[in-house]
Fold these 2 entries.
Entry 1:
Amino acid sequence: MASRDRTARVAVLGTSVQRSRNERRPPRGRNPQVRRAILLGLVLLALVLLTISFRSPTSGALHSVQGYGATALKPFQVAADRVARPFRDGYDYLSGLTSAKSENAKLRRENRQLRAQAVAAVDAERQLAELKTLVRFEELKTFPNQYRAVNTTVISFPGTPFAQQVTIAAGTNSGLRLNTPVVTADGLIGRVTNVEPNTAQVTLLTDPESSVPAIDVTHGVSGLIRRGPRGTFILDRVPKEAVVKKGDVIVTRGTIDRRLPDYYPRGIPIGDVLSASPSDIATFLTVQVTPYAHFDSLDVVAALIPTK
């Protein structure tokens, strides 16, 4: 019996179970067809509902169903709105912050441009006023004869307290030469000591090596204008017996002897006498002169070019 049962069990286990030929799997092409049919049906249903809704905009069974549905879904809508509100507020805040930063940067650029334009306008207006003053100076009877003015601007100032030269935007192409006198509408400031085609270096009267033959037009006393203390000039070489008083006008003396021509034409204003006093230890009279020109704010100047 044992052998028979074992044989039967082995026979059963060893027997392969075969499916019936009648059991067949569903065809693979049926599922896509079903999905397409369902999608088509949903599209048709949506078109029908839209048509009904448009034909009965204010009443009808469809609107009643919509009302019931909206009432039933309103709690969910309120809950979803409360959940989404912090995220929506955060997004609006970040979006507004980014927009504000962009707008702020744009306004700063516009502000810089407007400030630059305003500064340029103020500077141009000031230069125009100085040019008008120079033109009026050229029309005066005291303007030196046989000279013409080349109006230009100062483009470089002294780099150190000991340097007393400026650079102007005119050179040999405009008729400037060495020793060409340079003035402002107020008075003499110096002469050209180095010249290029389009620029020239002007050594100011405040230079320690500068000296200008000058005359007190009030009393006819001659001397040499040199640099003095605290922004003043000294009318040097004035005899002690000469009469010089406070307020006398000092101008350039100009050429006296044709064989020894002076750099500066006669009559260019230099300054007023501040004080005149004798000294027991000095050979000459001590005469301090306040200059007319403002050497610390030079901008528009004129170079005097001989017409002959």
Entry 2:
Amino acid sequence: MSETWISLGATSAMARALARQLAERGDRLLLAGRDMEELATLAADCALRGAGAAEAVAFDARRPDGFAALIERAVREDGALNAAVFVGSMPDQSRIDADPALVDGTVTDSFTGPARFLQMLAPVLEDRGAGAIVGVGSVAGDRGRIGNYVYGAAKAGFHTYLSGLRNRLARKGVHVMTVKPGPVDTAMTWGLPSLPFMTTPEAVARDILRGLKKRRNVIYSARIWWLIMTVIRLIPERVFKKLSI
């Protein structure tokens, strides 16, 4: 039986890749974001790929007054209801250092906006006793680093939120999986210096589906980033603060 997926930040490269793979297996898609024209184009593409249904719906992490309408729309779908969160923004750290007001939007996009939406969605999933939530964080959230510590802090908060939500919803048969990608070849990384072990949106989408099938709690994509971040977390603070990583 096909499932229904709410995809927040659906026009991001990773979200597009996942939507296409879900469409090919016949799932129904509620593609949520701010650019309705792009979302409509994506919905048409997914329909051609075999989606049971594909609909563009409005979502803005900074406009919580619109969250209830999206949830009400999703509730009209029968069967398993899932959510995948790709929302986030990563201004260059130097821009944030020059304009601290950018902290607010970064944290809202990458943590508090999605968390508020999921907090509203959670009772729906509990009542159904089924479903899955995929929260896309980042390896940047595993330790504060000089190059992106505000973004990293937002993702660290989101990781912790997902951990608690996982504990809550597991009791009702709902699975929550945290995804920590390393550098991905997307618009967010374009223009940055060459990054090691970069993966693709399609590879991340495949990792997500494999992780869900195995009911993983936390996955890294690519997997080598688990080892890299384990090493980085173990570096003593007195040494780490002298490094430029």
